[in-house]
Amino acid sequence: MEDKAVKGTQELALEGQKHLEETIESAFQILSSMNDELCNPTLWSTPPPQATAATSHSSTSLNGDASSDYPHHMEIAGGGALDDARLRYKSSVASLRAVLNAIQNSQKAKAFEASSTASGSASQADQAEIEKLEERACNLRKELADKNKYLKLLIDQLRDLITDISTWQSPCSV
Predict the structure, then answer these.
(1) Does the pTM exceed 0.70?
(2) Taking CA atoms, which of 15, 46, 66, 80 is between 20 and 30 Å from 136?
């Protein structure tokens, strides 16, 4: 039974690593899409007044995710690739969170099972494997947190750049 739980945790760790890689790839795709849109001068013009009103209305329903903080006027200007990347990012983050919760629940269940059975002590090899997996899960959490901080920094820098570009494009009053 315990081998089954360890194997389940190992499978969850591998699945978590896969979702982390998908999250990083999606975050990179978001940045690439933002770069593509910033390099396309036709997208720099301000949207029509009707689109501006729709944008300001839709930007009030943000969910707090780093990828949803990006200004919505780029979506109107042709952000299909960006929207796709944002959806992939949100989906992979949700999957990663689910796997991390499953790993944590699996560890709690193993701890409860181990404490309830006096004769069910894990072998030294199993214990070492469990510790490695716990350390790997911890490292994955830290790496995800670092990547999210870095992504937020890049998005903030992009906002500043967009503000600068908007300032440069505005007519100067002499």
Answers:
(1) no
(2) 66
